[in-house]
Design a protein that fits this description.
The protein is α+β, with helices and mostly antiparallel strands. Helix content is about 15%, strand content about 40%.
């Protein structure tokens, strides 16, 4: 029996038969902002987690001389270095629309079903809610904790199931913590995963659920590599901007005795 249903919060509002998407934008031409002014606004919003899109607007007026070009380069350099996800305006609008139309159904205490089209892939809860019991969840790729908030990642399926727990899991499960690009999982099991990433820049990926100081053996576009997990079982990978990757979680290598 479904106990309750609620919509997700979103960056948009219903206007008749259309959805108005909230996004940043430049001022009209009569009061146009320069790239340097835009950079000041972007830097002012760096504190905390960014929840609104970054949109840089420029024209031929911004490349009329060396000073103007230098200002535009500073803005583009900031964008290249910032932890942003590259996406089209259409993709962002689709995520907002899907967020507004999503439904969360409560099955029991700490147990929910999420129904949507798969474009909205993140659910936020207070960190006091616990953590996902990944062995009992379905359609969940992982989670992250930031600034007292729990962010749960879905795989983009039309139905996702979240089960939370206050207890540490009996065994660790391989899971996504964060990715600098869109990621599609083809397989996700307790000790192995296969996924695809695609972006305009090299991809930075953080995975959890490895044994402390364990080994991550992975194949990226057909080439074998390896990386070591830290004391918390977290692995950080740097991948090419377009890659198919298979990951295997292995125990720590046996220490070699000193002669």
């Amino acid at each position: 029996v479904l106990a309750e249903s609620a919509p997700l919060a979103s960056h948009g509002m219903q206007q008749g038969g259309s959805i108005e998407v909230f996004a940043t934008g430049d001022a009209p031409t009569s009061s146009r902002t320069t790239p340097i002014q835009q950079l000041g606004r972007l830097q002012a919003g760096e504190k905390g987690r960014r929840t609104s899109p970054v949109s840089v607007n420029c024209s031929f007026l911004d490349v009329q001389n060396e000073q103007a070009i230098a200002g535009l380069e500073k803005v583009l350099d900031w964008c290249a270095q910032a932890p942003l996800h590259t996406m089209s305006a259409a993709a962002y609008a689709a995520s907002v629309r899907d967020s507004m139309q999503s439904r969360i159904l409560r099955l029991a205490k700490d147990h929910w079903i999420i129904l949507n089209e798969g474009a909205a892939r993140t659910v936020r809860l207070p960190v006091s809610s616990g953590q996902p019991d990944l062995a009992r969840c379905h359609g969940i790729s992982g989670y992250a904790v930031r600034d007292g908030q729990l962010y749960i990642h879905t795989m983009g399926r039309v139905r996702s199931e979240i089960v939370l727990t206050q207890l540490a899991p009996a065994s660790s499960q391989l899971h996504l913590i964060e990715s600098s690009s869109h990621i599609e999982f083809l397989e996700l099991a307790s000790r192995r995963a296969t996924f695809q990433v695609k972006d305009w820049r090299p991809v930075e990926l953080v995975l959890g659920g490895f044994a402390p100081h364990g080994l991550c053996a992975y194949i990226e576009n057909g080439r074998p590599y390896s990386a070591n997990a830290d004391a918390k079982g977290i692995v950080r990978l740097e991948l090419s901007r377009q890659a198919t990757v298979s990951v295997q979680s292995l125990p720590p290598a046996t220490a070699t005795a000193e002669n």
